[in-house]
Each structure stands twice: as structure tokens, then as C-alpha cells.
Amino acid sequence: MGKAAKAHRAKVAKRNANMKVKEKRMQKLWQELFDEKLKTLQDEFAKISGDTLTGITQSTQDEEEKTEQEKSEPTEPVSGE
User: How far is CA 79 from CA 74, 76, in A?
Assistant: First the structure.
């Protein structure tokens, strides 16, 4: 193998090493962004689903309280005398 071939192989090896480094950096960056987005979406989903469940239970409790109040209130008006 001649001197030129060795130099060419060295350049190709250096180029390939640089490409691998760039690929790893891009993959790491993509993974970090993906994890951030996933966490954001999970938080939003938890917030939305939590609100829905809270809203349902809260409205059910409010309806029960109204029903109990209606039962305890007198049906005939009380005179002020």
C-alpha cells in the first residue's frame, strides 16, 4: 500500500469518525427534545383528564348537596308573624 492510499484511508477514517460523532449528537439532541415533548404531553393529559374527573365528581357532589338542601327546606312558606 502506497503513501497516498494510507493518507486516503486516514482521511476516510477521520470523516467516518466525524460523521458518527455528529449522528450521536443529533440522536442525543432528538432524544432530549422527544423526552421533553413527551413529558409536556403527559402533563397536559394528566391536567385535562384530572380536570374532567374533578369536574364530574364536583358536579355530582353539588347535585347531591342541592338535593339534600331541597329536602330539608320547607315546602310551605313560613309567615313572618
Answer: 12, 9
